[in-house]
Amino acid sequence: MIEIVNGYTYIEDVKKLIEAYYKELDRNLDFQNIDEELNHLQTKYQEPQGKLLVALMNQKVVGCVAFHQFKDEICEMKRLYVLPESRSYHIGQLLVEEIIKEAKQAGYKEMVLDTIEPLKSAIHLYKKYGFKEIEAYYENPMDDVIYMKLDLRREKMKLTMLGTGHAVVTKCYNTCFVLSENHEYFLVDGGGGSTLLTQLERAHIKWQDIKTIFVTHKHLDHITGIFWMVRLITQAMNQNKYEGEVYIYGHDEVIQIIHDVAHMVLQEKETRFIGDRLHLVVIGDGEKKKILNHEVTFFDIHSTKAKQYGFTMQLNDQEKLTCCGDEPYNECNQEYVKESQWLLHEAFCLYSEADIYKPYEKHHSTVKDACLLAEQLKVKNLVLYHSEDQHIHERKRLYSEEGLQYYQGNLFIPDDLESIEI
Fold first, then answer.
1. In Å, how far are 36, 106, 128, 186, 398 from 96, measured between CA atoms?
2. Homologous superfamily of domain range 2-151
3. What is the strand order of the sheet 381-385 is part of?
């Protein structure tokens, strides 16, 4: 079990980590007054202007990170370090995520840091979270220093994975997710049942705040949770406890199923709101809608199993986010997928275990396949989902190890309830 906790009660452990960091770095860092810092860690990173965090793995301190006030509304990230034997568990990523959150809560507008060129993994991680290279903000005698800055004020879109598994997983929920921005929420698919409501609650997303829903196709692991949303929404409308209207988008088959099932299982006092305040909207191939104040284009993925749509969302003039549903990319959709800033793509299993899980028989792909595709189409960030759950506790590490052999961009293997800033 990995936890990120306050580091002030683990000062002696933090000292050992920092000493290990400098030993591993093998640089003369006298100019940083390291002995002075080690003797006054609590003062240098004192709250509320500073913060010191540690990572616990099975109650052992295996990593740390901190920030202190650099000047005015700018803080500086310092001392990100994870023990070598613990680096395969993405602890550095967890530490960076948490220290950024703490800096925002402390009211800082910018976060700066410095690193050195040989630390390729750290640089990759910083860029993954939005840090940009800048001019030197202080004098450092080393000639391979890289200075970076993150704008903490920018409100980014967030992707929250409610589920990451394929149709018959038992150790995680079926693949579905929420895109949110400026307190608006867009639900994509509902998974296989009422567990959707549990996942929303655990993700701290109120179902009442979801006003836009898209259902990719009719398979049970994608559409069944939507029936529970329809039930809750129409019941609340009937009780005058619901504000506003809701739009559910899908192709003709999906919308017909939602309409028919709702009228079979719900009472008339609830179904009377369908078509009035709960709108079932049929969308066609290439049709555009405004969602989260972004232009969204829906497209037919040309599935050979069941009619299915994906979508691409224009994030700004240059960047787009594309979701290919739960089947492999089809070349006829190249215009939507190519050069996406973000691509959400299924990966049923590792390529090395294709003989075990037989993804191709199910018209699914592997981690290797998805990563080769993303590299070929010049995708900047790749999110893999709709996976097997037999490696649930090691999936992030195993999938990353295979995928990064074929893909040079930012690879995300999220767990259920994990959020990613877009």
1. 25, 15, 10, 26, 21
2. Gcn5-related N-acetyltransferase (GNAT) (3.40.630.30)
3. 288-291, 294-300, 309-314, 320-323, 342-346, 381-385, 410-412
The DSSP annotation for 170-239 comes to SSSPBSEEEEEETTEEEEE--TTSTHHHHHHHHTT--GGGEEEEE-----HHHHHHHHHHHHHHHHHHHT
Question: Taking the CB of residue 114, how many other CB atoms lie within 10 A of it?
Answer: 17
Looking at CATH, the fold of the domain delimited by 158-421 is given as: Metallo-beta-lactamase; Chain A (3.60.15)
How far is residue 256's CA from residue 251's CA, in Å, rounded to a whole number?
A: 9
Residue pLDDT, tens place only, 26-54: 887 777 777 888 888 989 999 999 999 99
Please tell me the predicted confidence (pLDDT) of residue 191: 98
Band of pLDDT at residue 96, cut at 50, 70 and 90: very high
| Cα distance between the two ends of the chain | 27
- How far from the centroid of its chain's Cα atoms is residue 178's Cα? 10
Neighbours of 136 (CB within 10 A): 10
Task: Tell me the percentage of the chain whose pLDDT exceeds 90.
Answer: 85
Tokens 């405004």, residue?
290
**In whole numbers, what is the pLDDT of the chain averaged over residues?**
95
65-80 confidence digits (pLDDT tens): 999 999 999 999 999 9
| CA 295 remoteness from chain centre | 21
Task: Please state the domain extents for the chain.
Answer: 2-151, 158-421
pLDDT over 90 at 83, yes or no: yes
Strand order in the sheet with 246-250: 278-282, 246-250, 210-214, 184-188, 176-181, 158-163, 419-421
Taking residues 244-264, report their average pLDDT: 98
Please, which pLDDT band fits residue 216 given cuts at 50, 70 and 90?
very high
* Residue 258 near residue 226 (C-beta atoms within 8 A): yes
